[in-house]
Design brief:
The protein has 414 residues and is an alpha/beta fold. It is built from eleven helices and 20 strands. The protein is globular.
């Protein structure tokens, strides 16, 4: 059985690990933290802005210029990744790559996303929809009046506006607690009895035909918690994700982690990969930082999926030089002058597109276009060419590149 080491526990790392294990590889996943999914919205962004709001993400991807990461991994891998992810978490994500949802945020704006959790999709509003945003007095990270008033004056992407009001409900997550986190509430709402009491607390204040918007705290482990609340209220319900840590993100992370473990992936969390051995253009092992002298993990193939600047996989020093911090891979775009320009309201900063150049098989390339190492692949935010946070395409790139890398590895090792 071939051995593969995946570095990183975000979306790219977890999808690659699942795919590799399902293909028969013996997979070890190394990560220094819990991964970035728990900081996100629990949805999958394929393409949100180009630069105008995108309604059909896959069509936008197919029309991109050759410098974009999507053109290197291909729309085929993106579509395969979206389908595969929905298979891995069948109760947790819905959507169509040809139609973005347009969902309310925790400040009452509208954000485009491709795949969403079923508990969110009733928030894909149309003109004239009547909405009530319900907050919890003890949850300080969600302000229903702010959401309602901003949403009421926002022109919907489909045209027109919704009619929105707000309610504030006195409902502590735990008896006597006056300041609870979203996760504390979510754990409480895993209990059907708590959900029933919650519905009774404000059902009498709802008006006919209203859609109920709630903070995204309707359970962590029970995927049907939101359905139970909607049934008890007799109204459609949608969740609005909150600032990190994100309960929907935790749900997605836990589901993908459980799937990987069930497929036989071995997780080694809380350990930074800081060194490697290589010879004859092949990586032999990587070393994690444990006492007394580190621990090596040898493998036949390696996937670098540790993110970019946000995770420390890319680093900018005080002299304006960027480096990839583990393998010392050459970087595309690192020679732009200046990497950070002084016009705050001007064009995108070139720094945000710096990353590793990859081939169609997702192997990092050197200046001549040859693989730096014959058994090293890259996936996710480390790949050059896109400001994923601005275009809202980082999740799709992570998915497509993870699929392409995993399938390339399985083909080579077969």
């Amino acid at each position: 059985m071939s051995r593969v080491v995946v570095i990183g526990a975000g979306l790219a790392g977890l999808v690659a690990a699942n795919r590799l294990a399902a293909g028969g590889a013996k997979v070890v996943l190394l990560s220094k933290g819990l991964g970035g999914l728990q900081l996100g919205q629990g949805t999958i962004d394929v393409f949100g802005y180009a630069p105008e709001r995108v309604s059909n993400p896959i069509r936008t991807v197919q029309a991109l210029p050759g410098t974009h990461p999507y053109t290197r991994v291909g729309a085929t891998n993106l579509l395969a990744g979206l389908a595969y992810l929905k298979e891995l978490v069948p109760d947790l994500l819905v959507g169509d790559p040809e139609a973005n949802y347009q969902l309310p945020t925790a400040v009452g704006a509208i954000r485009p996303t491709c795949l969403a959790q079923p508990s969110m999709v009733a928030g894909n509003l149309g003109a004239g929809d009547r909405v009530v945003i319900v907050g919890l007095r003890q949850l300080k990270d969600f302000h229903p009046q702010l959401v309602a008033e901003n949403l009421a004056r926002t022109d919907l992407p489909s045209g027109g506006r919704a009619k929105v009001r707000h309610l504030l409900v006195d409902f502590p997550a735990r008896e006597g607690e006056i300041d609870s986190s979203a996760l504390t509430y979510a754990r409480a709402f895993d209990d059907p009895g708590v959900r029933e009491r919650f519905a009774r607390a404000f059902i009498g204040e709802l008006e006919s035909d209203e859609i109920v918007g709630l903070p995204a705290v309707l359970g962590v482990s029970d995927p049907n918690a939101w359905r139970h609340v909607a049934e008890k209220l007799g109204h459609p319900v949608f969740e609005i994700p909150l600032p990190p840590p994100s309960v929907p993100g935790i749900r997605l992370n836990e589901a993908l982690t459980a799937s990987a473990k069930a497929a036989g992936v071995r997780f080694v969390p809380g350990t930074r990969v800081f060194d490697f051995r290589a010879s004859d253009r092949r990586v032999g092992s990587v070393t994690i930082a444990v006492e007394p002298a580190g621990r090596e993990f040898a493998a036949d193939a390696f996937v670098l999926a540790g993110g970019g600047f946000e995770s420390g996989a890319l680093e900018l020093d005080s002299h304006g030089r960027v480096r990839e911090t583990l393998f010392g891979l050459p970087l595309e775009g690192a020679d732009a002058v200046p990497l950070i320009h002084g016009d705050y309201w001007g064009g995108e900063q070139p720094l945000f597109t710096v990353g590793v150049r990859v081939g169609s098989d997702l192997k990092p390339l050197d200046a001549s276009g040859k693989p730096v190492y014959d058994n090293l692949w890259a996936a996710g935010g480390i790949i050059a060419g896109s400001a994923g946070w601005a275009e809202k395409c980082g999740d799709g790139i992570a998915l497509a590149s993870a699929m392409a890398a995993a399938d390339s590895i399985l083909k080579e090792l077969s």
